[in-house]
Amino acid sequence: MRLHIRLRTIFGQRCLALLMAIYPGVNDSKLEWPFSKSCTLGVIHPKDKAKRKIHKVDASECSNNPSFQMPKRSCIFFFGDSNFTTTNELEREGFVHADSLHLFLQVEP
Q: Could you tell me the pTM of the whole model?
């Protein structure tokens, strides 16, 4: 699994997308499919670790989604939040420090 970060301009605002994708691996045949774990991705405040912006995905609630099927080499599907927040909001709320963001991806059973 990989975390993907995208910045793009939408209606004049710089928007941050936080997305995940499941990539093929050598142990895929040993794993249970479709993927059915809960995932949390987000940004952690650099000075107040309890302050976070998060997006949760419970894969068990959308098992028909192609993103959660065993990945194939030729086709990768992304899931997450394509309009997670704006760069202005992150800066205004103090999430940007020294031109850096602290991102995380957590997978739970």
A: 0.85
